[in-house]
Amino acid sequence: MSAPWQPLLDWWFGPGGTAAEVAASRTALWFGKQDRQDEQAREQFGAWVEQALAGQLQDWQGEPEGWLATLLLLDQLPRMIFRDTPNAFAGDPLARTLALHGLNEGWDQQLRPIQRLFAYLVLEHAEDLTLQNQAVQRFQVLLEQVATSEHELFAGYLDYAERHQRVIARFGRFPHRNQILGRTSSAEESAFLLEPGSRF
User: Which range of residues forms the domain containing residue 125?
Assistant: First the structure.
């Protein structure tokens, strides 16, 4: 009998293969912005997202894959289901607490490298320089641990983490979230948002 969270992991990571193969088949799902994918996430996993946001699914969180699945429900799927609304970030505080707990337990080390990406992205999403620094450190270690054939892929993930870190070091927050969250942008932030790549 498969674990209750397995349908989510199957949808998110696909049938398996190397990290490069998984990324090739799933990057559009992970980082794309398509209404069809957002609706699919809502239909298939919206109820689980609501449960996770309510602090439920505790029984999922006692082992690495269940921990990872809960992180996806708190950190990744709300960004799809509630895209361009404040609720897109509603799960972030719970996700950070859960991520740090699992990292302290070493659960990330029991996951495949491509899965570990989504534990570290929780830290990368934080408007907190200490957590950003930790995200970069985690991605640096991950890059050192993967096969040489996968260095280019994981170097890209590290680069992305470093870009997030620089924004938080400069502004203390992500300016591209200001409009969604009803925050007033400073003149410097407004100028930054005109630059290519400022909105990730």
Answer: 6-192
CATH number, domain with residue 128: 1.25.40.10
Number of domains in the chain: 1
Lowest pLDDT segment from 14-23, 83-92, 146-155: 14-23
Backbone angles phi and psi of 106, in degrees to 5: 80, 20
Amino acid letter for position 128: D
State pLDDT tens for residues 121-145: 999 999 999 999 999 999 999 999 9
Please report whether residue 42 resides in a domain: yes
**What is the separation of C-alpha 125 from the centre of its chain, rounded to a whole number of angstroms?**
7
Asked if residue 199 is part of any domain, the answer here is no
Mind listing the pLDDT tens digit for each residue in 29-88? 999 999 999 999 999 999 999 999 999 999 998 899 999 999 999 999 999 999 999 999
In terms of C-beta distances under 8 Å and separation of at least 24 residues, what long-range contacts does 176-182 make, across chains too? 176/200, 177/89, 180/84, 180/85, 180/86, 180/88, 181/86, 181/89, 182/86
Q: What is the pTM of this model?
A: 0.96
